[in-house]
Amino acid sequence: MSSGNEHMGYLGEGLAQALRLILAFDREFAAIVAVSLEVAFTSTALATTAAVPVGIALAESRFRGRQAIITLLNTLMSLPTVLVGLLVFSFVSRRGPLGDLGLLYTQSAMVAGQAMLAFPIVAGLVLASVVSLDRRVRATAESLGADGRQSFRLLLREARFGILSAVVAGFGRVFAEVGVSMMLGGNIRGYTRNITTAIALETSKGDFALGIALGLVLLVMALGVNVALGLLRRREA
Asked: How far apart are CA 15 and CA 178, in angstroms?
């Protein structure tokens, strides 16, 4: 019984220390959170720039091999993070074709890997959103004299909440991943160490306070992403 109380006291102490770290906004804690946010926002922005046009094009076009591309895209939505990390690592390592650029263990390599993770998610969800639109809206606009650009703007307007949902989902995917960050960033303190890699490191060192504090931030961000998705889907409906 006393052992159980000791364990509970240990966890309680760790949680209390974690809350103190968060409230004090410890410098190391702040740096880790900043790296996570910077890399995740940058990678999501890059993925969105490429993925939204691809998703819309697949929804609006009809060509041979389209269904195969859609199937591939849907498959890549559940791509393991370590596989993406291995792929990018093979390109940016010293022996890889991009090795001379010195990208390995940098934020740039992390951004590249996370953008690859987010791309199929954003593209696939944008595709699903555009496909589900009522085609009569655009057809009616064109029958009333709207040109191609105007009807395309109308399509974007109708699909805006679905596109935003796709972007939020892509951000949620990369913010919580660990494989890409560990393999490509190297967990360098003050530079590439983000929330997930720091949790793994601090827990292995026995520093549960910082690990719990970072875990709470991760939990709050995950909750925020899910709340945002729920609100966007409600508005879309």
From this structure: 23
> Residue 105 sits in which domain range?
2-236
Alpha-carbon gap, residue 173 to 51, rounded angstroms: 15
Per-residue tens of pLDDT for the chain, all 237 residues:
445 555 555 567 767 777 777 788 778 888 999 999 999 999 999 999 999 999 999 988 889 999 999 999 999 999 899 999 999 999 999 999 999 999 999 999 999 999 999 999 999 999 999 888 866 666 666 666 666 677 777 778 888 888 999 999 999 999 999 999 999 999 999 999 999 999 988 888 877 788 888 888 898 888 988 888 888 777 766
Q: What burial letters (b/e) apply to 201-228, b meaning 16+ CB within 10 Å? A: bbeeeeebbbbbbbbebbeebeeebeeb
CATH number at residue 106: 1.10.3720.10
From the CB of residue 156, how many other CB atoms can be counted at a distance below 10 Å?
Answer: 12
Cα atoms in the Cβ-side hemisphere of radius 13 Å centred on 90? 5
Cα 174 from Cα 110, distance rounded (Å): 10
Q: How far apart are CA 97 and CA 91, in angstroms?
A: 5
> Whole-angstrom Cα distance, residue 127 to residue 113?
22
Nearest to 162 by CA among 129, 135, 127: 129
DSSP string, 46-108: HHHHHHHHHHHHHHH---TTHHHHHHHHHHHTT--HHHHHHHHHHHHSTTSTTGGG--TTSHH
Please give the tally of structural domains in the chain. 1
